[in-house]
Amino acid sequence: MNATVTPPPQPVPTTNRMTAEEFGLKHAGEHVEYINGEVKEFPISGGGKHGKVCYRASMVVGQFVDATNWGHVFINDTFVKVPTKDDPDRVYGPDVCFISFDRLPKDAEVTASTLTIVPNLVIEVRSPFDTWTSVFAKIVDYLNAGVSAVVLLDPTTQTASVCGNEFWQRTFGPADTLTIPEVLPGFAVEVKKFFE
After folding, report:
1. Which residues are CB-neighbours of 105 under 8 A, at least 6 positions away?
2. Residue 72 maps to a domain
3. What is the CATH number of the domain that holds 172?
4. Which residues, 6+ apart, have CB-to-CB distance to 20 below 8 Å?
5. What pTM value is reported for the model?
6. The domain containing residue 111 runs over which residues?
7. Number of independent structural domains in the chain
8. 118 by DSSP, 3-state: which?
9. Residues 111-127: pLDDT tens digits?
10. By CB count within 10 A, which of 36, 60, 64, 123 is most buried?
11. pLDDT tens string 137-155
């Protein structure tokens, strides 16, 4: 008589992947992003110049948004969920972002964790440690996730580049007037104002 031996059950592989919300709660206050299931540290600061340009960007955009009463402005590397095809819980920390009241109502409670509403506008200030490859890869992720426009401010060249799915890239020099009609109709500011 032949006996059949049933192999013992094999353990089901487990993963330590977090949701974007879990990541935001666990890593609040840290200078990290969540990419492909890995917590990636990035330098605390791009230096004084980087911090000043971030402040100027938040102030200029924030004043316009407040005056028009169009939405919320977030700063200081607020965790934002930026889902990609292969990484649905990807989280970035943009320098400045704007979310309209259409996407996040004015009286809605803002989470203490990761923002899961895709911003209308993201502003990134290029740091000395940023490579162009990494900067544009992040811009592509933002646009693919549904961000309408991404502004890249470069303190070295004192330029602003606006990227979008419908037009890809427009570059403005220090003496040019930056406009973002796709996201903030009526907004206009001399690029050099960001770098003063």
Report:
1. none
2. yes
3. 3.90.1570.10
4. 34, 79, 81, 83, 89, 90, 91, 114, 116
5. 0.85
6. 46-77+93-195
7. 1
8. coil
9. 889 999 999 999 999 98
10. 123
11. 999 999 999 999 999 999 9
How buried is 11 (Cβ within 10 angstroms: 0-12 exposed, 13-18 middle, 19+ buried)? exposed
Place 11 in a pLDDT band, splitting at 50, 70 and 90.
very low
In a domain, 8, yes or no: no
Q: Would 11 be classed as within a structural domain? A: no
Do 122 and 182 form a contact (C-beta atoms < 8 A)?
Answer: no
Q: Residue 41's beta-bridge partner residues? A: 32
Answer yes or no: are the C-beta atoms of 179 and 161 closer than 8 Å: no
Residues in the chain, overall count: 196
Does residue 140 belong to any structural domain of this protein?
A: yes
Per the DSSP assignment, residues forming a β-bridge with 122 are 97, 150
Residue 40 belongs to what H/E stretch? strand 38-41
Cα four-point dihedral sign 117, 123, 127, 129:
positive
